[in-house]
Amino acid sequence: MRIEKLKELLTGGEGINVEFKQSRNKLNKDVFESVCAFLNRNGGHLFLGVEDKGGIIGIEPGAVDKLKKDFVTSMNNAQKISPTFYLTIEDVEIEGETILYIFIPESSQVHRCNGRIYDRNEDGDIDITDNTNLVSAMYMRKQGTYAENRIFPYAEISELKSDLFIKARKLAANQKPNHPWKAMDDLELLKSAGLYLKDLQSGKEGLTLGGILIFGNDQLIHAALPHYRTDAILRRENIDRYDDRDDIRTNLIDSYERLMQFVAKHLNDKFYLEKDQRISVRDKIFREVISNILIHREFANPFPAKLVIENDRVYTENSNKPHGNGVIDPENFSPFPKNPTIAKFFKEIGWVDELGSGVRNIYKYNKIYSGADPTFIEGDVFKTIIPLTAQASDQAAQASAQASDQVTDQADEDIKRLLEFCKTPRSREEMQRFLNMSHRGYFRRTIINPLVKGGLLKLTIPDKPTSPNQKYYSERL
Predict the structure, then answer these.
(1) Domain spanning 3-127 has what CATH number?
(2) Global pTM value
(3) Among 95-99, 397-401, 415-419, 421-425, which is the least confidently predicted range?
(4) 230-393: which CATH topology?
(5) Which of 99, 154, 345, 376 has the largest count of CB atoms under 10 Å?
(6) Domains 3-127 and 230-393 share a fold
(7) pLDDT tens-digit profile of 274-289?
């Protein structure tokens, strides 16, 4: 957020969505009570290093990193905040002093701090744990606001896809080797992720819509949400209809992968070195774009999500519960979660980052990809427009020339060495060790797949691309 906006919030003083804490060299004991209250109410802005009346005292220079670390650690401690919630803490310099700023979005769940439930009003944070009427009203408000929390008591665990639980545990363990999901059974995982809830007022308990959308088989998803679908369209030659299409009506995990495959099929990649790491710029952009249309959509609205690839742009549309209208300024906007529980699940498996990072990442990487700024338009339908250059929007059939040009233009000596190494057929493991890269999925996605698509690498068993005996070889440089 821009400094001017932060100064405006500081000048306005404390209120229902703004709280100041001194925390000069350690976190105030009641910091997390305010976090809990903001999560449970409408969200808010928390400032550390600021007096109650708005005077900036700052954080002691030697304590900044410690406070940031302590805050993040506590937010990931279920004994402190339950359920846990990921927040970003930012250090900002104002009037020569360093303060810490945390934007806290409204959560779709009811949170506890040290086992107590807090709500927010103009006077501050209120412990409502023992007031059953207020607690019940909070649960009703959360479930009424977020479609993802709707409970389906007659949906059976057996109607979920067991292979998706295996995949989720594996992806989560890739992010955190000792991830707690590894030791949980399916029901425990669902409860831990907030995808199996109990309504304290009615007594109903069961799978939520979020749990069904993430893990359900296609029949269960259709029964729970008949209008749910995502349309992926290529429209280049036949602009009145389409040249290719994928009508996706399956779970969110498979939907994400099918959309990424559709993009990879029709948009060329671009090798780029970032801090000595080779990354896929295309994947960086569309990872965020696709996450947005799957995760941050209003599922109660029958408007279908769309991803459309045209000659000069890619645009997406998804139903939205707007918090404003018009074009979004990436330098000055407050992100609001549409489905926080689903978003948190995707963060656990490493497919999204913290709230608000998507817009910034798309801006950053589209400058590299096409040299143009994307556009985000907030409304009842959220629209994202990604401009393409001729290079970015060429048919994938031109990938061979593109891949060769990229090797030369970017002086990618590693790729040249790899192609030389593969004059003798090599396995994926041998190639990965040769380049000293540890992440198998990343290596396959950003190295092997583009080189195969570009014709620079051939398969020894082309009829069985996923064969465990598969090797790759290079015919030329």
Answers:
(1) 3.30.950.30
(2) 0.59
(3) 397-401
(4) Heat Shock Protein 90 (3.30.565)
(5) 345
(6) no
(7) 777 788 899 999 999 9
